[in-house]
Amino acid sequence: MAPLILRPSSPAHGGAAVARDEGKVWLVNYALPGEVVEAEPRGRQGGVAVAAAIRVLEASPHRVAAPCPYFGACGGCQLQHAEYSHQLELKRQVVAEAWERAGLRLPPDVAVLGMDHPWRYRIRGEFEAVPEASGWRFGFHRMRSHAVLPVDSCLIHDERIERALPAFARAADELRLTGLQNLLLTVEPTGPGLLWRLRFHGRAPAWPRDEFAHRVAALLPEVTLLDEAMSLELWDMTCRVRSDTFVQTNYRQMLVLYRAAFNMLRPQPGERVLDLYAGIGTISVAVARECESVTAVEENPHAVQLGRLNARINSVRVEYMPGKVESALREIRLGRHQAVILDPPRAGCEPAAIAELIRLGVERLVYVSCEPSTHARDIVALVRGGYRVRRAAIVDMFPQTYHIESVALLERS
To answer: Rounded to whole angstroms, what are the CA distances from 233 to 189, 245, 289, 342?
Structure first.
C-alpha cells in the first residue's frame, strides 16, 4: 500500500495515536494527537489497522527530537517523540478512557505523578543475545517483531547496566560460549551490587560459570557481581531480591507508587491486612510496621521464600499463604481482615478472586494495577459487589514508554 496522509486525534493505550480515514480506524505509531503525518501501513494489531509515521507534515507543539539513536527501531520505547509533560497528559487520557469504556468516571482531580528526571530509571533489564561475525552482542526486540536489534546504549537503564553489556559480551567471546539466549541484569539502587543471570537456548550446558564471573568482575571493577540475591532499600527497611522474582524496575517511582498506595490504605494499629499477589513482600513489610499483622498471598515459591526472609529481616508480622489468590481467599474467614491491598499481574484478577473479595467485604481495598483496561474491568465488578471508588492516582513508572501504573481506593458502601 502507498503511504497515507493521516490526522490522529486521540491517544491509544500502546503509545500509538488513533486516526480515522474514510471510516477506517488506524493506530499510528510515532505520531501525536493533532498532527498531520505521512504514514506507512504496517499490518494489523488486534483487528485494527496499524501504520507508522514516516514524515511529519504538521507537527504538534509537544513534539521533540528523540534522543535515543535506536528510537523507532527498538520496541522498548514508544513516546520519546513527545515532551515529558505531554506524555503524562496522554497517559491520564488513556486511563480516563479505559475507565469510561467500563462505565466508570476517573475522579477529576487525578494527576499523573511523574519524574523530575525521566531517564536512567530502570534498575533491571533483560537483553537478548545476538551472535554477530565480530562476537556476541546484546539488544532488544524490534518494534512488533521477534527480530533482535543489538544496542550499545539505552537511555532508560541505569548507566551501570549499560556499561556492563560489553563486559558480558567480551567475556562470552573470550570463553567461546555458544547458545546464549538472554542476559538479565539488576543493579542495587543504593549499593554497588550487580545481580546477573545468563540463560541459554534449551537446557543449560556445562559451562565455566566461575571463570566467566571472574572475567566479568575484572572488566567491571566498580561493581560487585552478585549470583544469588541483592539488597533493596525501602525507606528505612531492607529487602532481598533475586533474579527469578519480580521487582519494580523503576526504584525511584516505586517509592512514589508505594507511598500513594500506603496513604490510601491507612493501616491502623490493631488491624489485620491482606496483601494479595504479594511477591517478595515489599508492600507487606511496609504495611506490617503500622498494623497488627499482614497475611500475604503469593504463588511463586521463590517469592514466598524471600518474602518470609524479608519479614524476618525487618522484624514484622507477615504470614505467607502460598498459592493462587482465588484459592487462598476461600480459606479466609469473614471479619478477620479490615483492609486489602492487591497488585495483580497485567491480566488482572480472576473472576473467582473478585467474588471472594466481595464475599469477605473488607472495609477498605486498595488496587494497584499496571494495565488500565483490566483495572477498570475489575473495579466495575467490585462496585457491582458493593464498593465505591473514593480516590485514584496514576504513577508514571515507565517514562518514554506507554506503560501506566494506577491505584484506586475502594470503600464498602
So the answer is: 8, 16, 15, 21
